[in-house]
Amino acid sequence: MKSWQRVVGVALLIVAGVVIQQSVWVLRLLDHGQPGSGFMPFGLGIILAILAAMIILTNLGTEEKRVPFWKPMAWLRPLLALAIMGAYIIAFDDLGAVTSVVILVTAWLLILEKKTVLIAVSTGIVTGLVVYLAFE
């Protein structure tokens, strides 16, 4: 796994180099004493290069023992999360923001987090009240 992370780090380092090169040669870093169109890409390229170097340096060494990515039935919770979010998206226009947020939070806590009904419903209602107070 570490070898793939090193490969990704090198690929990101190459992308950062291209971004830095293009922002210096093609775009302008400074334009009449003000930041030019290449200033932001140059800064982001530097940040990307630093992060890519950190990925490479933190993944030096030997490979670790491989472990299975999914435990049996581990795919069920992400699938349930997608189903809950899909129902939220579909119900949002018909039910409105406050009601759909209450249902989303309550369903999420009941089904995915296995909280008690009292905690799930009260947290859903409080979240709905916060959404109402913040956006209405």
What is this entry, summarized?
The chain has 136 residues and is mainly α. Helices cover 73% and strands 3% of the residues.
Write a structural description.
This protein has 136 residues and is mostly helical. Helices cover 73% and strands 3% of the residues. It contains 5 helices and 2 strands. Strands 1-2 form a two-stranded antiparallel ribbon. A hairpin with a 2-residue loop joins strand 1 and strand 2. The model has no long low-confidence stretch (mean pLDDT 86).
How are the secondary structure elements laid out?
Layout: H1 2-25, E1 30-31, E2 34-35, H2 39-58, H3 76-95, H4 97-112, H5 117-135
Antiparallel strand pairs: 1-2
Features:
73% helix, mainly alpha
Number of strands: 2
pLDDT < 50 stretches: none
Shape: flat
| H/E series | HEEHHHH
